[in-house]
């Protein structure tokens, strides 16, 4: 059985479970379940606090986990990312009241409120900046207004929370982050069970970002049409009963599909269809 740590709460939890479900794994039906065994797929899911996942995985009793890159760095645990998952994308930044700080040099002597002391301490140590850090569990943006700190260091996505608190980012971004699959540093890379799990998730990522495109075109336009739809390997081209015409089938990036359909139509291609890909193994 592959033993996998999954976030039980917060921004990572819903999208992680949705991705696993799409990959064909059973997921828990109610949020109080702590462990779920999926015998058909030979995996066991442990629903853990996102901040703790890297610690569990580094301890070696769980094979892999899903967490945020920022949480992994913050934990300082001996685990490493092996597959980016494309959700929970964020940037970790310093922010303060406008006019009170413009660069990281202004951090010296200040108090910084954060839920991510590990990341902040590492950043300050690397730059030799002497500042105090106060830990808060959340709603860190309010710390300045309430006099707990002069600066915050927090996750920023849309910037709405900062704006609502009347704060502005300053200095370079401390790090960018997204959800990742992690494993213990130096763990077996070629464990077939881990490889199969990763292939399933990669299949979901591809199925989400590509569509299958089919169209008919005249043989003399084939080269130009295929240049628009080169596919991942090479398009499938089949003869049509109607002489001088071929049918072409190719994978296309979903976000480019409409533009490519326009260009194919201009070229004289017809019966241009796109269909969703539900699952794949490349
Ligand atoms: N608004 C957001 N947009 C995108 N990613 C986010 C957002 N908030 C947090 N994250 C990411 O989610 C992970 C943090 O998950 P975690 O569950 O600890 O915090 P949370 O989503 O803020 O939940 P909570 O604070 O309610 O427990 C981090 O990787 C972080 O970068
Ligand atoms: O830039 P934004 O789109 O506003 O997103 C960033 C905010 O989202 C998260 O907060 P969350 O809602 O999880 O509350 P928390 O601060 O209590 O963790 C994060 O801690 C930021 O506060
Ligand atoms: Mg939060």
TrEMBL record:
It comes from the Bacteria. Gene3D superfamilies: 3.30.70.120, Periplasmic binding protein-like II. Its main location: cytoplasm. Its EC number is 2.4.2.17. It catalyses: 1-(5-phospho-beta-D-ribosyl)-ATP + diphosphate = 5-phospho-alpha-D-ribose 1-diphosphate + ATP. The keyword Glycosyltransferase applies. Pathway: Amino-acid biosynthesis; L-histidine biosynthesis; L-histidine from 5-phospho-alpha-D-ribose 1-diphosphate: step 1/9. Its cofactor is Mg(2+). It is found in: Cytoplasm. Residues 207-278 form the Histidine biosynthesis HisG C-terminal domain. Keywords: Amino-acid biosynthesis, ATP-binding, Cytoplasm, Glycosyltransferase, Histidine biosynthesis, Magnesium, Metal-binding, Nucleotide-binding, Transferase. The keyword Transport does not apply. Residues 49-203 form the ATP phosphoribosyltransferase catalytic domain. One of its GO terms (molecular function) is ATP phosphoribosyltransferase activity. Catalyzes the condensation of ATP and 5-phosphoribose 1-diphosphate to form N'-(5'-phosphoribosyl)-ATP (PR-ATP). Has a crucial role in the pathway because the rate of histidine biosynthesis seems to be controlled primarily by regulation of HisG enzymatic activity. This is ATP phosphoribosyltransferase. It comes from Streptomyces cremeus. The gene is hisG.
